[in-house]
Amino acid sequence: MRDLWTPAITDDLLAFVRYVYPWGKANTPLAGINGPRKWQAEDLDEISQHIKDNKGRLALDQLPEVFQKSTVSGRGPGKSAEVSWLVHWFATTRIGSTVIVTANGEPQLRSRTWPEVGKWHTLSINEHWFDYQATSLRPQAWFAEAVKRDLKIDTGYYYAQAQLWREEAPDAFAGAHNPHGLMLLMDEASGIPPPIWTVCEGFFTEPVLDRFWFVFSNGRRNSGAFYDTHHKFARMWRRRCLDARTVEGTDPNRYQKIIDMHGPDSDEARVEVYGQFPNQGDMQFIPAEYVQGAREREVALDMGAALIMGVDLSRGRKDKSVIRFRKGRDGRSLPPRRCMERDSVKLADWIAQAINDEDPDCVNIDGGDLGGAICDILKDKGYKVHEIMFGSASSDPQWDDKATEMWADMKGWLPSGAIDNDPALERDLISREKRRVGKANERIKLESKEDLRERGLDSPDDGDALALTFATKVSRRDAASRGRRGMRRSRIADGVEENMHGE
Fold it and tell me: 72: part of which helix (H) or strand (E)?
């Protein structure tokens, strides 16, 4: 047991895991298993190298770094086992430290993640050091007394805890700090909302040596904090995408059945087998592949198409007013305009300047809140604009309101359209979800901005601005060549139809 206190064990996680559990021993659950799987061993060695590097930084009077690792995987590769080993290693070798374990909800945490911690605790050679309970792992009384007596370390914060959270009260999750080391593990992290992640950032503000943040999940959503660890904030995280078929000790027939049932390119195969994020989440309104294609596609110039201008107006302190332009399939060539102004007159002047600069054939303005007043100001100045009420009725019975109809038209345009490489626009387009409404769930309704904010996402200002270019149907600029010269402006004002895709 004294070997547990040597650096060869305390700072070498693979050596620790091989030492403390009865691998290959008869009459134990590990009788037929020789050790961790290959991907697990690679993870453990990566952590060990980080510890070595951090000690080197301290020797050079540099601050130690936080270890952050995000793993997206298919089903059944052994994530919960690795979580359990990390909990046990940290509690055993970082005396006085704190471990927080959380998951996407209470059922996952209480019935799956934490019982797995108990299983490996029972198998360990130092089981008698700790008292395993329904939501905690704490030093036994004799061990706690020895730590206080011999090491002069208070054991009040020496524990591993299965911690629940409430999205409406994220601050209740806060407060974890420990100079002896802190580890945070998130299981099924794709279901943990952004406000909880934001609070967790504060756990690691003290520059202590041992700070670790691990997140594991299937890639169930194309938005949210877990998705961002592999995309928007990828440079801040070590990352692994784990294809379950590459993991030894799993049943390949099980995974092949999923592929055969749903197709090799299906989201089910991507999530359950390949360890990837879906092209389209279960409730996602616009597939990510549509957006990626529109970002990469060459612009199809159509000089005869109408130029349409969409204006989404700010509704809060953090929101922006955004103008976007679309000319047929081209939503890229004219750059967006953004403004944080709140005054109606100044906003109207800003919109008027854009109209003067670009001479659009149609201007559609978000009619909510300040929109009505701004449209009135612009009309008084002689500008022809359309006030669009997002909550008004849709002309198509499958959509619940005008906003959903506009976004549906935009969704239909994206596979042939071109958009700019703008992270804000991409995030808006792929984050919005859909709902089924009506007595028989017969209509689809776009997720509200309030629901987006509850999920920790910003108002989709750029997405709404582009969607507004689909709010009215406008005649083409080259209509004159078909005997309608001179009528374009008046027809725009009356909402005369154009082939909206510029065809």
Answer: strand 67-73
Q: What SS3 class is residue 444?
A: strand
Q: State phi, psi for 166 to the nearest 5 degrees.
A: -130, 125
Given this model, what pLDDT does residue 406 score? 97
DSSP for residue 231 = T
- List C-alpha distances in Å: 134 to 112, 126, 180, 187: 12, 19, 24, 17
**Burial bucket for residue 481 (CB in 10 Å: 0-12, 13-18, 19+):** exposed
pLDDT of residue 195: 83
DSSP 345-389: HHHHHHHHHHHHHH--SEEEEE-TTTHHHHHHHHHHTT---EEE-
Helix (H, G, I), strand (E, B) or coil at 321: strand
Q: Domains (ranges, CATH) in the chain?
A: 2-250 (3.40.50.300), 288-494 (3.30.420.240)
pLDDT tens across 115-139, in order? 999 999 999 999 999 999 999 999 9
Residue 377's CB is within 10 A of a number of other CB atoms, namely: 19
- Residue 459's pLDDT is 87
- pLDDT number for residue 67: 98
Scored b (16 or more CB within 10 A) or e, 268-305 reads: ebbbbbbbbbbbbbeebbbbbbbbebbbebeeeebeeb
Strand intervals (E) in 133-287: 136-139, 159-162, 182-187, 211-217, 238-242
pLDDT at 479: 67
Buried b (16+ CB within 10 A) or exposed e, 27-37: eeeeeeeeebb
Residues 6+ apart with CB under 8 A from 317: none
**What are the pLDDT digits (tens) for 316-364?**
666 789 999 999 999 999 999 999 988 999 999 999 999 999 999 999 9
How many other CB atoms sit within 10 Å of the CB of residue 361? 20
Nearest to 364 by CA among 333, 401, 402: 402
**What stretch of H or E contains 121?**
helix 114-123
pLDDT digits (tens, 9 = 90+) for 178-211: 999 999 999 999 888 888 898 898 889 999 999 9
How would you class 266 by CB atoms within 10 Å of its CB: exposed for 0-12, middle for 13-18, buried for 19 or more?
Answer: middle
**Residue 20 and residue 501: Cα distance in Å, rounded?**
65
Please give the pLDDT value at position 50: 97
Rounded to whole angstroms, the Cα distance separating 163 from 136 reads 9
Inter-CA distances, 64 with 43, 55, 56, 202, Å:
19, 7, 9, 16
User: At 376, which amino acid appears?
Assistant: D
Residues pairing with 238 in the sheet: 69
Q: Which residues of the chain have pLDDT under 70?
A: 1-5, 167-169, 172, 175, 280-282, 316-318, 479-503
- Rg of the chain over Cα atoms, rounded to whole angstroms, equals 28
Phi, psi (5° rounding) for residue 376? -60, -45
